[in-house]
Amino acid sequence: MPEKSIPLTPKLRVVSSVILPYNHSKRDNRKFIMVEEDGVWCPPGGTFDVSKDPDITRAATREVREETGLSVVLANFIGLYTFQSPNGNVVYNTAFSGLIESGDFVNSAHREDITRVDAFTLEQIRDMNDRKLLRSGYANVQMIEDFVRGRVFPLEVHQYIQI
Predict the structure, then answer these.
(1) What's the number of domains the chain is made of?
(2) Is 61 part of any domain?
(3) Burial of 5 (0-12, 13-18, 19+ CB in 10 A)
(4) At 144, which CATH number?
């Protein structure tokens, strides 16, 4: 298997993730909705493309709807998580918590690139990280842990972060 080459000039990617408690209640954080793509799992979300929509909150909710079939309302800003991807790019992940507004969560994909949609406990997600089954690895675990600990901020806070 050929090794992946790291670019001489890494690209900056801005993505969003939405942490969604499974039972549609902001108080029950025992399970979280995750999507599988290319054999790895992550919270619903996606790459932020300013040419499609300059508002990252609208982009985040659109991605959730496309990936899971659920309409959500964002509740809080969790944080900005920075890491380097395996191909050498720098990734800024803007994480939000969300509440399901409408739609039915079903264990099936709503887009061709999404293999499955399912809900997992924090312990299961940690285990997935240990087995290298999470995209962005520990950054996804940290987002969910921060949410569970109540380390969230008013949604408007994200507007003051300049990337």
Answers:
(1) 1
(2) yes
(3) exposed
(4) 3.90.79.10
